[in-house]
Design a protein that fits this description.
- The chain has 46 residues and is an all-beta fold.
- 0% of the residues lie in helices and 17% in strands.
- It is built from no helices and 2 strands.
- Strand 1 and strand 2 form a beta hairpin.
């Protein structure tokens, strides 16, 4: 599964960055406590 992110740099704040993503391609079950955004997180993308 490909991970798509939308990078964003904060003008005037060098070194500060953020990335946004969606749940497209899968969603976890239960109460979310953290976001494992990695190919090696071991989640089921379906």
């Amino acid at each position: 599964m490909d991970i798509t992110v939308i990078p964003f740099a904060f003008p005037g704040l060098p070194g500060v960055r953020a990335a946004f993503t969606t749940a497209r391609g899968g969603a976890g079950r239960g109460t979310p406590h953290e976001a494992n955004i990695a190919y090696s997180a071991g989640g089921d993308p379906t």
